[in-house]
Amino acid sequence: MKALFSLFAPNDFSLIAVVLAMPLLGAFVNGVFGRRLGKSAVRLMALSAVGISFACAIVTFAALNDLTDAAKHAGAEGTPQKLVWTAWEWMKLSGTGASRIAVDLRFSVDALSGVMMLVVTGVGFLIHVYSTEYMAEDKGFWRFFCYLNLFIFSMLVLILGDNLPVLFVGWEGVGLCSYLLIGFWYNKTPNAAAGKKAFIANRIGDFGLIVAMFIFAVYCGSLDWTGIQNNANNLVTSFNNPPGSGPGAIHLWPIGGGRFEDYTLLGLKIPLHKLQPDTPWAITAATAASLMLFLGATGKSAQIPLYVWLPDAMAGPTPVSALIHAATMVTAGVYLLCRLSFVFVLAPAAMLVVAFTGAATALLAASIALVQNDIKKVLAYSTVSQLGFMVLGCGVGAFTAGFFHVFTHAFFKACLFLGAGSVIHAMHARIHDDVRSQDMRNMGGLRKYMPLTYWTFVASTLAIIGFPLTSGFFSKDEILARVLVSTPTGVDLAAGPKPWQWPSWAPWVLWGMAIAAATMTAFYMCRCVFLTFWGDFRGWTIGRPSQVHKSHHDDEHHDHGDDEEHHHHEDLSQPGLPPRESPRTMTIPLLILGAAAIVAGIFNPAAIKLIKPDFDFLPLDHWLDPLFADAQRGLTMAEHHLAHSRELLSTFGAFTAFAVGAGFAYWVYVKEKGKPARDAMLKVPKLYRLLLDKWRVDEAYDKTVVASVDALADTATSVDQGIIDFVLARLTSLVVAATGTVLRVFQNGVVHVYAAIMVIGLAAVGWFFVQPHAAFTIDEKDGDYTLVASPGPSYSYRWYPDATKEPQSAEFSPTAAQIKVHVPDGKSQTVKLEVKNAFGRIDSKVYTISRPVPPGGGVRERGNQPRGN
Amino acid sequence: MIPVEHYVALSALLFTVGGVGFLVRRNVLVTLMSLEIMLNAVNLALVAFNRQATHVGAHTGQIFAFFIIAAEAAEVAVGLAIVISLFRIRRTVRSDEADLLKN
């Protein structure tokens, strides 16, 4: 480790460059040369790029660990350590006043980004391995790995960026890769539409992130993490700044802090003062910045109201769903919340919004997942729901718990998606149809045929539903417990306003919502397992080759790269081959992720403390503590005994949620073979349809937001076609055409006419030089006027200081280029200049200078009236 | 010594002859010759003015005339080339028949 530090200093840790550059190199090579390289070379490039990146990430993490230990021995425990590498200086922004905000292309690895970096490269590597098999038959193999490598690079930029603009570059980069990969099979319209939807929904979130950046630039005078943290108090204390003295409170109504005054229009008085509230509605910059950051997070992390893109994003290949839309990219929003935790705790009101959005998202998505039949849709809504849990954790100030759930979720959800991919892979060999091969009603009994997939899927299902001692149990339990125990109370700074306080019922409502969501999670995940793997295989009848054949030809744009010949030799009277287990390149990543899903809880088994109070093996907690230490000042924890009883209650609730949900699913789908579900479907058909249609949120958005944007676009189109195209463009072209008609007469192609025009022009120029031109400039000071004649070729001048009298001198003189004239106040005088040139021709100019009477000897105005000659 | 006015008068006369010829003749060869006459009228004026008593020791006029002669030579080379090209395409050297660019 010493040798490592002698190579790379902690403040210039260029190994980070290798971590970043390898995936970029992979993306470049595969993108530019991939088509010619062939599949094995593309595979080698992609895997080695991410593999080396992962190896370097491990070394970097070890170095960071060493640095933290060294700091601990030096007695500096609690100060966050980080490894920094600056690529180059990017730009310097002008801040308020004369300050300059330096924005460098700087990357840093600290406790938070270190863990994220390992997850992204590690899980990313496993999914790359899996994809080499899953995508083996695809024509766009090289394109896929180019995008996937580019995604890893962008995600690393997002995580490792040391300031908001660099993070934003990565933020946009992962959005781009997500778009490219959702629409990977771009000649199918729904896929392309889903990609577009994801991109646009994220764009709305990005608006929030950009506004937050502006707020930090103005109020904190910095955009990097350390700078924002050091100046975070300004976000609150600036609230009491008087108007006009730099950044102050952010006024919501009247917007920007003006005043509504009555307005008279055509003798009619409009009583605008009624719009003026008694006290203007203002919030602290901390609240505004937090809400704007959270808007960004809702876009990326699929929270209400912007979650709608994530379920549609399942149109992409399944490994993409696993990597981008479950394990890594969608957690970027939660990462942002954790990263800027010290800002969020300053704004309890914003925290309430965050917490309730998280809880509501968890509940809504879980309710939708109850009835979905597409295995990937179930997992997609499950992802949205779990992201809701993470956001809820951050919203109550349990940043470690929220981040721990990011960590465990990365394993079990990636495993679930890859397991689903394995199932779809097997089903796809029977049913050549994207929709029907993913329908759980066509599956069943697969555990017999695909034991490895089954066991890994079960392992990660146990984790997600919170089976005791699995990773998901520990992480979810901690979030639930902290909802009851910790409350964001803000920081009461002397210079700032008193922080707004949460109502006392809020934690209980949040907890109730979370428990309900957890119960539903247990139910729908068990339903998913029972429908897919238990019972008898239903694909025998549904996936009959004869039907397969038909549906295959219906689908003209089929480009999954499968061989058409495959089915032509099959006996149509036979049910076809049974589903087969996937090859080892797919099952090994599954096994690793499944094992991690079970045991990853070891990193923070906080629940054990309930039984053994002196238990202190909480590596992640201790690891992240220095980073979140600053956030603790804005949180109030319940008193020790109360906290203990509430944690017990919460754990009991979580266990009950798991037991009730899983038991009920077992009763419905195994004991009664799904009969109660069908009965319920018939009993409340409207509710069932509503859930199946995902609460019709997409339709509501279409009717309101999309429709109004469309209407605006239509208006713009008619303005464009009616005014711009019709009036402006036609009129302009008419003028040009008319001018052309006139000029065409001269452009008659006869050389001597051109010659004649040229001669006339030359004669005019000649005449101009033969003729003298009298002109002068005037300079005035207290009634003394200096007149300077403009020079010309062999000019001589004669001045008449008073045009009615004799000239200054009788002769013209080439040196008398200027004269001085004094005009008293209230008088006027006419000056005349005569200019003679070498040809003896004379030109003259007359000018009257008049001075007004000064009003009481005050300011004098210039009253020069040009008259010309 | 002949006064400068005589030279200038001759120069003006030559220039007018050239200018009128340039404007009225349709034969491109004659047009080119008229141009030569105009240029030489200018040369004459330049050289004549340079001989004036106020310009003793200065040779600007003469040097300028040399430059004009050089430019003339180049212009004639290009001009005659154009005339030959025109003749090859249109079988004529009359400028009013070379009107393909009309409108």
How would you characterize this protein structure?
- The complex is a heterodimer of chains A (869) and B (103).
- Chain A is built from 30 helices and 14 strands.
- Chain A is elongated and about 125 Å long.
- In chain A, helix 4 packs antiparallel against helix 24 (584-599) and helix 17 (399-428) packs across helix 25 (619-628).
- In chain A, a hairpin with a 5-residue loop joins strand 1 and strand 2.
- By secondary structure, chain A is mainly alpha-helical.
- With 103 residues, chain B is an all-alpha fold.
- Chain B has a single domain, classed as Orthogonal Bundle (Helix Hairpins), CATH 1.10.287.3510.
- Chain B has 3 helices and no strands.
- Chain B has helices at residues 4-24, 28-50, 60-90.
- Chain B is elongated, with a radius of gyration of 17 Å.
- The chains are: A mainly alpha (869), B mainly alpha (103).
- At the A-B interface, helix 30 of A face helix 1 of B.
The chain pair forming the largest interface, with residue counts per chain, is: A-B, 10 and 14 residues
As for the CATH topology of chain B, it is: Helix Hairpins
Outline of chain B: elongated
Oligomer: heterodimer
Task: Give the low-confidence spans of chain A.
Answer: 545-573, 858-869
Give the structural class of chain B.
mainly alpha
The CATH architecture of chain B is Orthogonal Bundle
Overall mean pLDDT score of chain A? 88
- Which band does the percent of strand residues of chain B land in? under 5%
Can you give the mean pLDDT of chain B?
A: 89
Total domains of chain B: 1
> What is the approximate shape of chain A?
elongated
Largest sheet of chain B: none
